[in-house]
Amino acid sequence: MQDYFNEQTQKIKPIYYIYYYLINSSGSQKPKLLRSLFFSVLSSILFGVAIVSMYPFLMALELNDNYQLTLIFIICSLVMAIVCRVIAEQYDTKGYSHYAAFELRKLLGEKLRKVSLCTLTSFRSGELNSILVQSVNEAAGFAFTLISMLIYGSVIPISVSFFLLFIDYRFSILILFILIVIIPLYLWRRKAFRRGFSLLAEAQQHLKGESIEFIQGLDILKLTGQTQNQQQKFQRVINDVATIQNIGTKKGERPNFIITSTTQLSLILILIFGVSWLVSGSVDWALLAMLVILMARIADILNFFVQMSSLLEIFVISCEKLEKIMALPELVENQLDKMPTNYNIEYKNLHFSYSDKEVLRNINLYIPENTLNAFVGESGCGKTTLVRMLLRYADPQKGTVLIGGIDIREFSQEQLMSLISVVFQDVYLFQDSVINNIRMAKPSATDEEVISACKQAQCHQFIQDLPMGYQTILNDMGSNFSGGEKQRLAIARAILKNAPILILDEPTASLDTKNELAVQKALDLLVKNRTILVIAHRLSTIVSANQIFVLSNGSIVEKGEHQTLLADNRNYAQYWSYQQNGK
Ligand SMILES: Nc1ncnc2c1ncn2[C@@H]1O[C@H](COP(=O)(O)OP(=O)(O)OP(=O)(O)O)[C@@H](O)[C@H]1O
């Protein structure tokens, strides 16, 4: 259970934050929400007026003294209260809340675009998805329901208490006293509830993450015989969710009982005082009858408010999650007026750490344009991180990366990405047609251009053999394609994009001989006249590279051509010898 305790579950935001979140979650719809808020308050006041006017009505009825006028006044107040409520509810009925959710999602999308990939990958799978879907719905969708609940629960008793001042101030004080007793009780209950809800939200988040991992990794788990173990882990989280729910229900029992009893007891309190004042002759029966009806109504409203207030906590938790995303550091971007005239790449005194773990140390390297450059070294030495620095996967803590003599932070994201194509071992394919999956590298490309890129990438034939050819929809991230076929689709994207710099995470490393030959043929075409950075696992594929950089523990320890490095007889020569001997 300790897994779910974190800064968010420990900290309870003060109650005024709820109002802050409620108003701000509506974004540009704020004026409409404020208008709804105004009409909700007006509706509650008019309702209070109508209830309190029951007393002069009953008195006039008893004395047969022009009661029709009071009756018309009560009916008008009630009709106006209903009209105001209908206007207030337009925030939901006219779809403004949906628009607020749409805008919030757009804002989050924009934010995520500006956050470094390194930061984004620190989120658990499913976490961002759940924030974008569930938290947005809860934050933007609940706002009006919660506001009206808060208003009816507080404004009706307060306005009634105010109007009663003109009739009998003692009852006003009595109602205010009941409200004042309930508020600290509610705050006490909130504390117990809030922690439980935060823990539950965390546990449910874990459950979503586990289920996504379980489903996505099912084939690997089956192959490695680990299904049972993973299922046990999954089951443990399911049990945790059930346990937290049980504990939450038990913990909430006492505060719930006390609060609902207090609202019911208030009715008895009014009766006790009212009857004693009636007996002493300082109150008449009509006022007492009106107050009993009134208190029954107020007790209902307060009970409803208390029961529904768990929604407030869910709302606040969602807002806090959105706040966490909006507070993520952004990559500072600029926009260049002129793009570079050459594609020489330079890393200058670059240091990079993930949290406090230093992964790249004082990297200095120069890559002339149109050359083939390979990065080799033991697993975990920092090859991928080094190459990703060029893509602004994250910004280095120290040092710079330059393309054509320009610091890459000077480019906008679009400008930088227009210069670089990547072909990694993991190819991401979207659930869309084959042609659209390739065209995404250059959205303006014609069908002919896409087909020509596919021919060069050696994938035209197998696409043609698909049931709907280029229009075939890829299912489940392209699970119906082999690894080699996916690689060739990625190469087709890179050919179509035609960027001057190409990053390859040795795409043939995990392929069988037949697929490797096809991919290699496609690659041979792609690498011509480009600046290439390749992460190499098999040294035989990079013997012709212009420069080979050998990394060890985050530093470049050797660099040169294949033959020079062999002659140096250091790390590279040792790796070469291992691989040649099949070790
Ligand atoms: N997102 C991340 N957060 C924290 N640490 C990371 C992250 N990505 C990589 N690392 C760590 O940084 C170090 C360098 O990783 P990197 O992937 O750059 O190595 P590599 O040389 O490419 O390894 P391999 O050849 O196995 O792919 C490793 O110790 C790795 O565990």
Polypeptide structure, described:
There is one protein chain. This protein is α/β, with parallel strands linked by helices and 583 residues long. The protein has 2 domains: 2-326, ABC transporter transmembrane region fold (Up-down Bundle), CATH 1.20.1560.10; 345-580, Rossmann fold, CATH 3.40.50.300. It has 22 helices and 10 strands. Strands 6-7-8-3-9-10 form a 6-stranded mixed β-sheet. The chain has a 4-stranded antiparallel β-sheet with strand order 2-1-4-5, with no helix packed on it. Strand 1 and strand 2 form a beta hairpin. The radius of gyration is 34 Å and the shape is elongated. Adenosine-5'-triphosphate is lined by residues 118, 121, 354, 359, 377, 379-385. Adenosine-5'-triphosphate binds next to helix 14.
SSE layout and pairing:
Layout: H1 7-10, H2 16-24, H3 30-52, H4 54-63, H5 67-88, H6 90-93, H7 96-114, H8 117-120, H9 127-164, H10 169-216, H11 218-223, H12 227-279, H13 285-326, E1 345-354, E2 357-367, E3 372-377, H14 383-388, E4 398-403, E5 406-407, H15 413-419, E6 420-423, H16 434-439, H17 447-456, H18 460-464, H19 483-497, E7 501-505, H20 513-526, E8 531-535, E9 547-552, E10 555-560, H21 562-568, H22 571-580
Parallel strand pairs: 3-8, 3-9, 6-7, 7-8
Antiparallel strand pairs: 1-2, 1-4, 4-5, 9-10
Helix pairs in contact: 2-9, 3-5, 3-9, 4-5, 4-13, 7-9, 9-10, 9-13, 10-12, 10-13, 12-13, 17-19, 19-20, 21-22
This protein binds adenosine-5'-triphosphate.
Adenosine-5'-triphosphate (ATP) is lined by residues 118, 121, 354, 359, 377, 379-385.
Protein name: ABC transporter ATP-binding protein
Keywords: ATP-binding, Cell membrane, Membrane, Nucleotide-binding, Transmembrane, Transmembrane helix, Transport
Membrane topology: Multi-pass membrane protein
